Amino acid sequence: MEYFLYDLIRAFWIQVVSIFFREIASGNAHSVPKEGPVIFVVAPHNNQFVDPLILFKHSPRRVYFLVAASSLKRRIVGFYGRLLRGIPVERAMDHKKKGVGMVTSNSNSDTPDPLRIFGLETNFLSEFQPGDRISILSGKHQAKVVKVISDSELLMDSEVSSPDVIAALSSQTGCAYDKIPALDQKAMYKSVYDRLNSNECIGIFPEGGSHDQSKMLPLKIGVCLMALGASADNPNLKINIVPAGLNYFHPSKFRSRAVIEFGNPIPIDPELVEMFKKGGEDKRKACSTLLEVISEALKQVTLNTPDSDTLQLIHTCRRLYNPTKRTISMRNQVELSRRFVKGYMQLKDNAEVSAIINRVLDYKKKLEYYGIRDHQVEKLHMDRFDAIKLFTWRFIWLVFTGSLALSGAILNLPVFIVTRIVSRIKAKEALAASTVKLKATDVIATWKILVGLVFIPTLYTLYSILYVFYAKNFRFLFFLSPSPNSGFLYSFFQGILLTTFISLASLNFGERAVDIFKSLKPLYTVILDSDNISKKIISERAELSESITQLVNELGPQIYPEYFNKSSESDSESAESSSGIRKRTINKGDGNPDSETESKSTRFSVPSITPKFLSKIRSVSSFDFLGTGTDKIRKLRKSKDENSAEAKSETPEPNGGFFSQIFSVSNLFQVGWFDNSQDSNLPELAEYSKSIKYSGSSYSTDDDASFSSATHSRNSSIDSNFSTDGAKAFGMSPLDPKK
């Protein structure tokens, strides 16, 4: 029964987090052991109670998280935490108390002891016990109390290193302090051991509390005590530690994106278990060794930068680096950013790297000045007439989709207002109570979800009651008539369903409207560009992209020698393969060697629009299709007529013509070009890419299938680059300039 409740509640929260986030990608989930005890170590803890939901969604096994006992005392969090079989953990920080009096390091001795603390009007004997911790100056220095000498004197186990704390302790008035008691965690460890002995999985955030920094906090030793302690108690227990890295594009933003990457399992070394059993210094060494292994494993699946500015710089460089001219999956974007971080941290003092960084910073400032994002720069490459046509067409669709989303937006406007206000208030409270948070953005998403779970049902109930009174004389709605004894309930649930349907439909169309609105800025810039600013930005970006790509190719082997060696071998094989394809293409030209030259006289040839072709491309973005303009539609129709014989030989065209075939695609508003692998689209499109011919451009068969949806890559400043090379082949890109 407990598993049934767990699975039911887990499924509920998976749906909640799937609504909050637009996309949650995962990687390497197949590496999670299918059986046996597993400890998931998850980092960074940047999104409070949302973080475990991401793991719930993509973990192939049931996971039971360690939850702060103070959190389980909350009404909603505690209710669901107990149903999800969370393991309560008493945190010493939750029992922190403000100390009486002040503390100082001043003494009458000529040889002051850096481990000795003196009190001014303090009661150390009644406040502290050996093993408790003293927190000085709002946690800027914490140390374990070794000995309490008197009410005004005690010994710590570590010296003060913070200049601020040293200055405060040296003052005549001293500084404030807090007492953090030592807690008995035997009950918690017993619960963990029982779960592991039952071959279950537990989840833990080794950083401790949540935070909003761009790097991981120092890991706590608790996970090592659990893993080594359970292995020492049961020698037959084969525990695996699985690192899981969380990467958010905008953690607190509704309908943003996230990626979770699983690392390879880490088995417990029997030698460390034997050292742990010995206790004392050997035990500490065993825990430190395992903690270092876990830390390094987490660094392989997370992004860690000194600050947020560096993180944004890394994302910009990653977008500019584009050697293959293909759009890559979201998971690969994160992996590439991770490699850029490693390279930047090792080579940031290099003169060439510093010069490139300065150029990138100047480029970013220029984009900020003109209000353009990097992924929109390629959209500036079009003439003014095309920009006007596309701007007009997209503006029409903006009005259309916006009007469809308007009703749901009005219905849910109170939700957005209330969740925003409450989450900001809670963020301020969390920031005031924390020493590690920068802006406390890590709690915003949690409170948006919690407030929404309470407020949305309440609001929809109110709407349904109002609907009942409105629908008294309109029982023909939905072509159904209520029975005489169930009129109120029938109308009430009808109102609930209608409100929910309108909200979900408005969410869908609203996203599309926002995407279209964001895409208008570069078009607006092109239309009003009188100083050729757009061409200058395009040229600067192209030069930067080429410089970064060359620099990575030069310096990359120093950091990833095996990867670059393998990449070089793959490139040579691809060159041979592509040359063979080109040779076969030339042979198709009626045996005339000039046929390839003749093919350059036309921009492209479009493959026949058949069900077979539609099954290959899987889905088409409605906005890319509808934004092509009438001239491109005519070209597509003309090409379809030219290839009608081929289309009929494959399969008869269904009634309704071209539009019926395009709109028969079930996933009209989504793009399915790519899987998790950057190159996964090549085999799928290889069959019909051979029929595409291009005129005097730098395009090759290695660069095909670089499609991108207007709805997929505009929502975030750190989304992937928009690539139109492949889309040009089909005349479907709304951003393709006339040549």
TrEMBL record:
InterPro entries the record matches: GPAT/DAPAT (IPR052744), Plipid/glycerol_acylTrfase (IPR002123)
Region of interest called Disordered, as start-end residue ranges on this chain: 566-603, 634-656, 694-739
Low complexity biased stretches: 694-713
Gene Ontology molecular function: glycerol-3-phosphate O-acyltransferase activity; glycerone-phosphate O-acyltransferase activity
Residue ranges, compositional bias (Polar residues): 714-724
Keyword Transmembrane: yes
Domain of life the protein comes from: Eukaryota
Basic and acidic residues compositional bias, start-end: 639-651
GO process terms (BP): phospholipid biosynthetic process
Ranges where the Phospholipid/glycerol acyltransferase domain occurs: 39-249
Transmembrane segments: 395-418, 449-470, 490-510
Protein name (record): Putative acyltransferase
